[in-house]
């Protein structure tokens, strides 16, 4: 969820009208906010099975309160009551509800500002091999533009530089890709094992991979699905940065200890170099659960 949300302009939060908010609901809203998903539309699913409209009203109120608590405009967020199953079965009422949900997305989620003039950067989400052509990397363009024949660096792959010899989006060839596009990029002469998910394809010299950075981090409380015990210097969780999943060690300096539900500034040393820059959001996970979210403050020693 972390790497997927980091590439979204908006999201649909699906909540069961029967069960209401679950622990993962709160976690997903918190993560969406942290990685820059600024607009959410809510789908209250299974609304066909809710016999008491007042209970559904209560679930909607709880969802709005949750969104407000995480910095969203909870009172203004569209909430649409749907039934995915009944819509798939062709029930006209619930088919119309899905159409209403899509209309709400079109209306509420604005066209995002694209940083087209910035140097090109695309986190690698997947790597493929096309027989007879070479290595293809896929992902969502974070910023800038890319054209056939442009030189790029594969950061995280020992400084590999190459030339773009092919661009596609959903199987259709293209001459140029720009921020916001999901693309497949064919790289000349790059071995399949030299690049992997978590690497970054960028304009040469525009970003420098680093292992050390300082960050401002919020440690999730137990009620948010996080830890019930404090973190201390030497703590070694996994850091999810763009599409990368990297182990790292935390140094809290003079603070020493941070309790769940608190925010602190700390230093991190990653297990390998990752392209970093101030303002970049990330998540901290341990044992399959998110335990913290943060923003890079500065990069380097």
List keywords for this structure.
301 residues, alpha+beta, Rossmann fold, Elongation Factor Tu (Ef-tu), domain 3, 3 domains, eight-stranded antiparallel sheet, six-stranded antiparallel beta barrel, 5 helices, 21 strands, globular
Task: Give a written overview of the molecule.
With 301 residues, this protein is an alpha+beta fold. The protein folds into three domains: 1-108, 3-Layer(aba) Sandwich (Rossmann fold); 121-202, Translation factors (Elongation Factor Tu (Ef-tu), domain 3); 209-299, Translation factors (Elongation Factor Tu (Ef-tu), domain 3), CATH 2.40.30. 18% of the residues lie in helices and 40% in strands. It has five helices and 21 strands. The protein has helices at residues 2-5, 23-34, 53-69, 84-88, 92-108, and strands spanning 11-16, 40-45, 79-81, 121-123, 126-130, 134-140, 145-147, 151-155, 160-169, 172-173, 176-178, 182-187, 200-202, 209-219, 231-232, 238-241, 244-251, 257-258, 263-275, 281-286, 289-299. The strands form five sheets. Strands 4, 5, 6, 8, 9, 10, 12 and 13 form an eight-stranded antiparallel beta sheet that branches. Strand 1, helix 2 and strand 2 form a beta-alpha-beta unit. The longest helix has 17 residues, at 53-69. It is globular, with a radius of gyration of 21 Å. The protein starts with a helix and ends with a strand. The model is unreliable at 1-6 (pLDDT under 50). This is Elongation factor Tu. Keywords: Elongation factor, GTP-binding, Nucleotide-binding, Protein biosynthesis. It comes from Streptomyces misionensis. GO terms for molecular function: GTP binding; GTPase activity; translation elongation factor activity. Residues 1-113 form the Tr-type G domain.
């Amino acid at each position: 969820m972390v790497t997927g949300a980091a590439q979204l302009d908006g999201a649909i939060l699906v909540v069961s009208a029967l069960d209401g908010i679950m622990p993962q609901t709160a976690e997903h809203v918190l993560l969406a906010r942290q990685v820059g998903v600024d607009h959410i539309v809510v789908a209250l699913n299974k609304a066909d099975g809710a016999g008491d409209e007042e209970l559904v009203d209560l679930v909607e109120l709880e969802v709005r309160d949750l969104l407000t608590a995480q910095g969203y405009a909870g009172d203004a967020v569209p909430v649409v009551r749907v039934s995915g199953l009944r819509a798939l079965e062709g029930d006209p009422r619930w088919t119309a509800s899905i159409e209403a949900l899509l209309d709400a997305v079109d209306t509420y989620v604005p066209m995002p500002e694209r940083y087209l003039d910035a140097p090109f950067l695309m986190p690698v989400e997947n790597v493929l091999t096309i027989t007879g052509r070479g290595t293809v990397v896929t992902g969502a363009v974070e910023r800038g533009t890319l054209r056939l024949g442009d030189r790029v660096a594969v950061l995280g792959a020992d400084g590999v530089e190459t030339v773009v010899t092919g661009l596609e989006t959903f199987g259709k060839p293209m001459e140029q890709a720009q921020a916001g596009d999901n693309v497949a990029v064919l790289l000349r002469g790059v071995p399949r094992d030299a690049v992997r998910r978590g690497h970054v394809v960028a304009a040469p010299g525009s970003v420098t991979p680093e292992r050390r950075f300082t960050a401002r981090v919020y440690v999730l409380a137990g009620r948010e699905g996080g830890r019930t015990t404090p973190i201390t210097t030497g703590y070694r969780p996994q850091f999810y940065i763009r599409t990368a999943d990297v182990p790292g060690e935390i140094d809290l300096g003079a603070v020493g200890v941070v309790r769940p539900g608190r925010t602190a500034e700390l230093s991190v040393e990653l297990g390998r170099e990752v392209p970093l820059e101030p303002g970049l959001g990330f998540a901290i996970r341990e044992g399959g659960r998110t335990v913290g979210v943060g923003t890079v403050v500065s990069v380097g020693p």
